[in-house]
Amino acid sequence: MGLSLTVLWIILLGSVMYRYRNVVLESVRSIHSDSRIKFILFATLLALIEESITVTLTNLAPAFGVPLGAAYITASANYLDVVCLHSVVVFIPMFICWSFLLDRFSFSSGEVFLLFGLTGTIAEVMFGGFQALAEAAFWIFVYGLMVFLPAYTFQRNVEKPRPPIWMFPASVFLPILFSAPIALIISAIHPVSIHFPPIIP
User: Fold this and answer.
1) Which are the contacts of 171, defined by CB distance < 8 A and separation ≥ 6?
2) What's the pLDDT band for 109 if we cut at 50, 70, 90?
3) pLDDT digits (tens, 9 = 90+) for 85-102
4) pTM of this prediction?
């Protein structure tokens, strides 16, 4: 599953994003709206696409030779459950955080890719344990690609100061703080972290 996600999301779609980044830039520029709103919506769309891939791969567990729920990438086999009660709903406050950071400072899209990738890695450690650190490169790409294109298209013609040095580590943890209230609410109304149908031997 991890290899399939690497091929589909990181290699295939990641290459498409990079190859056509300037085409996307012109398309996004033609949309007359606040850059912060465009960033949030664009990043959310990419997160929804990424989760559609992971949920599909989770549901294909039998094709990988194991029962559904014995191996998984997502917390559930139900797409709406995953995005509304586990993942994307928590990502949106993170995207809001980054929309304000990008409105204030001139981060490069590569820096946003890496920093949000580190945020995602920390989130995976919080969710699945410290073994996620061994997969840091994988998670950096998975999460980083959610924001690379949105950051690339964000007000590139507006003069802004470079972020101070301390802002780089801060920007790894600030999105987590932004998402904490939503995460707490979700955990209260939907406390089951991982749930699949019972595995039938």
Assistant:
1) 98, 101, 107, 115, 163
2) very high
3) 999 999 999 999 999 999
4) 0.93
Domain locations in the chain as residue ranges: 2-189
Mean pLDDT for 97-120 is 97
Whether residue 34 has pLDDT greater than 50: yes
Please state the φ and ψ torsions of residue 76, each to the nearest 5 degrees.
-155, 165
Model pLDDT, residue 201: 47
For the chain, give the secondary structure using H, E and C. Answer: CHHHHHHHHHHHHHHHHHHCHHHHHHHHHCCCCCHHHHHHHHHHHHHHHHHHHHHHHHHCHHHHCCCECCECCCCCCCHHHHHHHCCHHHHHHHHHHHHHHHHHCCCCHHHHHHHHHHHHHHHHHHHHCHHHHHHHHHHHHHHHHHHHHHHHCCCCCCCCCCCCCCHHHHHHHHHHHHHHHHHHHHHHHCCCCCCCCCCCC
pLDDT of 200: 47
- Asked if residue 60 lies in contact with residue 141, where contact means CB atoms within 8 angstroms, the answer is no
Q: How many residues does the chain have?
A: 201
Does residue 163 contact residue 107 with C-beta atoms inside 8 Å? Answer: yes
Retrieve residue 101's tokens: 């950071």
